[in-house]
Design goal:
2 domains, 7 strands, single chain, 201 residues, binds iron/sulfur cluster, 5-stranded mixed β-sheet, alpha/beta, globular, Sulfite Reductase Hemoprotein, domain 1, two-stranded antiparallel sheet
Length: 201
């Protein structure tokens, strides 16, 4: 926060904006100052170029900070971001809005995530429901529930299966996750999430 405040002082007329997508915006930065801003961000480990990618997640405070929560959000978001950083596939996957809420109040906007995750409580355990195909863009759409929820240790592998499956399903490297979903419908994506059901069928 001190580093961001210093950047605002030096480059953006003392102004910082926090976006609903949980990113910090430095407005008014002169183009010629961009390299200096980037170097400062690099020095403070804040220069990850992931806007609009799978690790640029909206996650509500969840059970770590919110008294209303039925499940944790932040650790799930961190695990997903870490996993896809390890796989080094983020840029190949391309634009993908993943949003996580820790209860039905939906502060993480999971309904309009291309992939949404809703944390619930089932029999005293956290359970995470996946929704698919939501869109907060011009064609606004509420996502559809994919099927039964996953435990806290199962949700990240399920998201990995889903996203790696999308890479196989897309028509070309420029077809986004949402476009693939809209073209193919839910069935092949559900089959990636629930491979046992796929075998049984
Ligand atoms: S969605 Fe639920 S858990 Fe998350 S911040 Fe809102 S009220 Fe809290």
């Amino acid at each position: 926060m001190r580093a961001m405040a210093q950047l605002a002082r030096e480059f953006s007329h003392d102004e910082l904006r926090i976006s609903h997508e949980q990113n910090v915006i430095l407005p008014h930065v002169h183009r010629s100052d961009l390299p200096a801003v980037y170097r400062t961000l690099q020095a403070t480990d804040l220069a990850t170029a992931n806007i609009g990618l799978i690790s640029d997640i909206i996650a509500c405070p969840g059970m770590d900070y919110c008294a209303l929560a039925t499940a944790r959000s932040i650790p799930i978001a961190q695990q997903i971001a870490t996993r896809f950083a390890e796989l080094k596939l983020e840029h190949d996957i391309g634009p993908l809005k993943l949003k996580i809420s820790g209860c039905i109040n939906a502060c993480g906007h999971h309904h309009v995530g291309h992939i949404g995750i809703l944390g619930l409580e089932r029999a005293g355990m956290e359970s995470y429901q996946i929704t698919l195909g939501g869109d907060a863009g011009a064609e606004a759409k509420i996502g559809s529930r994919a099927g039964p929820g996953f435990g806290a240790d199962e949700i990240v592998p399920a998201i990995e299966r889903l996203v790696l499956g999308y890479l196989e399903l897309r028509s070309d490297p420029y077809e986004t996750f949402l476009q693939s979903y809209q073209r193919l419908g839910a069935a092949p994506f559900r089959a990636m999430i629930y491979p046992a059901q796929k075998k049984a069928a």
